[in-house]
Design brief:
Largest sheet: 2 strands, antiparallel
Strand order of the largest sheet: 1-2
Number of helices: 13
Protein name: Reverse transcriptase domain, Reverse transcriptase zinc-binding domain protein
Radius of gyration: 24 Å
Organism: Helianthus annuus
Structural class: mainly alpha
InterPro entries: DNA/RNA_pol_sf
Number of strands: 8
Amino acid sequence: MQVLDMFMKRALDLGLLHGIKLPNGGPIISHLCYADDVIFIGEWSMHNVVSLNRFFRCLFLVTGLKVNHHKCRLYGVRVDGQEVTQMAQALKCGVGAFPFSYLGVPIGANMKRKIHWQPVVEKFNKRLSSWKARNLSFAGRVTLAKVVLGSLPSYYLSLFLAPKSIIKKLESIRRAFVWGKTALGHKIKWVRWDIMLKPKTLGGLGIGGIRDFNVAMIAKWWWRHKQESSHLWAQVITSIHSTTSNNKVILVKATMPGIWKDVGGVDVVFVGFFV
């Protein structure tokens, strides 16, 4: 991937490929690499398509690395579907459509809709199944409920602010599991669930609330944005949100939808700790 990165930077310097120039002095985005996956980002033009084909050919001749076109997809943002198909044929790859999943994260999906959280709900149900509730002690069920909170949904909850209905659904699954609810019936709930969520020092069991976990994970991006200001992702955020922000805690452009708007939206909880 280092060779590919060097090739791409050289192609950009020579004007053979044109990436996306971000506003307010932001960086030029042309490609993103992760392990053996690469996302190419650029202006929508036949010039870029022809240059990209030549780039793939040169990369193969120099390194022996050949692109698997059957696994590649072309996505067009605000581009007519027929034009996307024509470009995909020129690149000899398939046509992609939004939303899609990349590295386990939904891209282009409206995460305020419950349907996009269904994978998390299904994983919760699968891990906290009723047969496990029958075969575990109360202490075992509490421990498993904590582990599930810390592992299964953390990927989603660290990026997206979950709808209240999803939080309520996940909490109901955990609550039923901890109290040993099965298909045969309910068990007596001796203590309120909100008390059990509290730390042990406050009289609870330290299970922790999903909403609190979600807000804490989202707020962590504030710290990362300040600590990693030289990183590419932070430069992208700064270039997009820097001009119209009046938020003292974090840069947020109110008219720009997306994940970062949710990140800025949790400031009402933590603003007292930062100002």
